[in-house]
Amino acid sequence: MAAIHGWLLLLPAMALLVLFTHFPAVATLIDSFWSTPRGARGSVFVGLDNYQVMVEDPVFWTSLVNSLWFAVGTIPLSIALAILMAVWVNDRIVGRTLVRMAFFTPTILPMIAVANIWLFFYTPQYGLLEQVLGTFGAPSHNWLGSPSTALLCVIVVAIWKEAGFFMIFYLAALQQIPPHLAEAAALEGASRWTYFRRVQFPLLMPTTLFVLVNAVIGAFRTIDHIVVMTRGGPDNATSLLLYHLYQVGFSFWDTGYAAAITAVLLAILAALAFGQYFFLERRVHYR
What we know:
By secondary structure, this protein is mostly helical. It has a single domain (56-283), classed as MetI-like (MetI-like fold). It is built from 13 helices and no strands. It has helices spanning 2-31, 49-55, 58-90, 96-108, 111-122, 128-135, 150-175, 179-187, 192-203, 205-220, 224-229, 241-251, 255-280. The radius of gyration is 23 Å and the shape is flat.
C-alpha cells in the first residue's frame, strides 16, 4: 500500500515529464523520417532522406562547428569566472552584498535586453567599445560585421550573461563547507591557493558537475542574442545549430528536415551529458 501511495505522489510529475519531454522527443524522431507536408500533399515516409540532406548541407556543418567553438569558448570561461566571483564574494569584503548583486544582475536581465545593450557596445564608430579603443588610436572595426570577430563577440555576451548565474550555485556550495576546514588549513600554514586547490575545489566537484551539464545544454540552446545581434551572419559566421534549426523549421518551413536536425541535436546533448557523468563522477567527492 505504501508503494502505491508513493507512485500516486509521483504520478503528476511523471505525467508532465512524459507529456512535455519524452513524448515530443519521440514524436520528433518519428517526424524526421517523414517528408514535410505541402498544402494538399500530405507527408510521406522518406526514411533517411532528411539525414542525407543534412549530411550534404554545408550550412549545417558550419553551424555545428560554430556551436562547438561557442561551447568551447563559453563553458570553461563561464565556470572559471563563476568560481572566481563566488570565492571572492564569499569572503568578508566591503560591500559584499552590492558586489553579489552586481555579479548576479546580468542573469536576471532578458537575453533580448542583453543583446541590445551589447549592440550599443559593438556599434561601429559610435559604440562604447569603439570610443574606448579610439582614445588609444585604434582603427575603427565592425565587430559584428566581420567573420573573424563576430563569433567571439557573441561568446563574450554569453559569458557575461551566464557567469553570474553559475556563481550562485558555487556560492551556495562554498557556504556549506565546514569552517573548521579553513581553520585547520590555517593552522597547518596552508596558503590561500593551497586551501582552494586541496580543500575547496574538490568539495565543489558535485556543483561543478551540475553546472557543467547545464552549461553544455545552455551553450547548444543559445539563439536569443544571435537573432537580435547577427541573425547568423556575416556569411553564417555566427549561425549556431539551434539558429539553423529555427531557420529551417520556421523560415523555410521544412519540418521534416528540422526534425532530423533536432534529433541530431538531442543525440549530441545526450552523449555529452553521459560523457560528463562517466568521466567526472569518479572525481566527485560527496560529504
